[in-house]
Amino acid sequence: MNTSIFDFLMLQDTSIVVLGCSYGPDSMALFNLLLEKRREIPFQIVIAHVNHNKRKESKKEKEALEKICNQQKIPFEYMKIEQYGEDNFHNEARNIRYHFFEQICEKYQADYLMTAHHADDLMETILMRIVRGATLSSYAGFEKQLSLGSYQLVRPLFEKTKEEILTYCKKNQVPYAIDSSNFKQIYTRNRYRKSILPFLKKEDKNVHLKFLQFHKRLKEAGTFIEQETEKLYKQVVDSKTNELDISSLKKQDSFLQKQILEKLLFNFYQDDLVLITEKHVDLLKEIIDRRASSVIMHLPNEVEAVKSYDHFFLRKKTDTLDGYEIELSSLVKLPNGHIIRQVDTCEETNNSIIRLSSSEIKLPLYVRTRKIGDRIALKGKSGHKKVKDIFIDKKIPMEQRDLWPIVVDASGEIVFIPNIKKSKFDKKKTENYDIIIKYQ
């Protein structure tokens, strides 16, 4: 194993790489390989380390990793998870971890976020999803490379086995520590790792290559199916209301009907897609096929699937989200007690004011509550940022988030989150603008 694992990337002198790094053998092997590669190309490395606060050894591992970074003159970014909710530990930890990584990538304007996931991890993920049940595309496991807007998430060890990684560490005297929680049988992934994978490797020492091939073929098939689904989706789902026309859907092949429903779920859930399995797609198909004219079914995360005569749609439960969408005329009184209005002149430049040019947006403007998956193109930043993450960053109380006003144009583009963030459409007082929106 050598630095050729980075050949699929376009690393340059100006490249900035954030490595999500524990002190385990996988992360430390990738860290060492990056240091080797840096001797060829002097790109910048940033280490992002998360203490999951579950083991007493974590403090010493953090200190050891930080010492190496100091010796190599590499920025060391650190966070400690102070508390968890009642969610699945691994899922919650992953969400917190990647939110932190995203913040570090934004801070350094990174080109790449790297993680040390490898072929054994891919095998475990595929097996777990097959047993648990998932959507068709999810059965392929995770990606080697994925665009996340302004940066790429990449996994250079994607095709390497755990054995190859440990051999590399031993040969190159790479320091690391073994996470004791990896041996606990209470975690599902550990049971696959300790029981199922050794059996498969005994049957075929190169079994990981079969899984890589399975991943590749399923992704190729998935790409073709997605293209066909996208064409049909536009025909049966209203782009403005996101309501599905049942009679149009039923004209399609049964398999494609399920693909369209899966896409409907994907578009609605987005950040919480881990909650959805093939079982939920089948349940939606069952609702649509029922003779009853009106049906409501409850889905994960306070979501309802609604069939109303020939229409079908998803929504947040009405008793948990008092949503609104109002055309922004001269003045709008909001449910949170504030008002938002268009004004003729204003000398202020704070986050309660935005100046817009009608030539760059689509009128009319609307003020509405947030939707799952909302993203905004921030002023002075590349790519988009999730509104959910902005609320988290600004520590907006959970009970206020669902009623917080969001200003969008007629195409649905978010232009302003009053008192919090302005979009790329905001104009300076010295620039050309013909609309001023004030929130008070």
Q: How would you describe the overall organization of this protein?
A:
There is one protein chain. The chain has 440 residues and is of the alpha+beta class. It folds into three domains: 3-208, Rossmann fold (3-Layer(aba) Sandwich); 237-316, Uridine Diphospho-n-acetylenolpyruvylglucosamine Reductase, domain 3, CATH 3.30.465.60; 325-439, 3-Layer(bba) Sandwich (Phenylalanyl-tRNA Synthetase, Chain B, domain 3), CATH 3.50.40. Helices cover 37% and strands 19% of the residues. It is built from twelve helices and 21 strands. The chain has helices at residues 25-40, 58-72, 89-108, 119-132, 162-171, 188-203, 207-236, 246-249, 254-269, 278-289, 387-393, 398-401; strands at residues 16-20, 44-51, 76-80, 112-114, 145-147, 152-154, 244-245, 294-299, 303-308, 311-316, 325-327, 331-333, 339-342, 353-356, 366-368, 375-376, 385-386, 406-408, 414-417, 421-422, 435-439. A six-stranded mixed β-sheet has the order 3-2-1-4-6-5, with helices on both faces. A five-stranded antiparallel β-sheet has the order 11-15-18-19-20, with no helix packed on it. A four-stranded antiparallel β-sheet has the order 7-10-9-8. The longest helix has 30 residues, at 207-236. It starts with 15 loop residues before the first strand and ends with a strand. The mean pLDDT is 87.
Q: How do you describe this structure in short?
A:
The protein is α+β, with helices and mostly antiparallel strands. It is 37% helix and 19% strand.
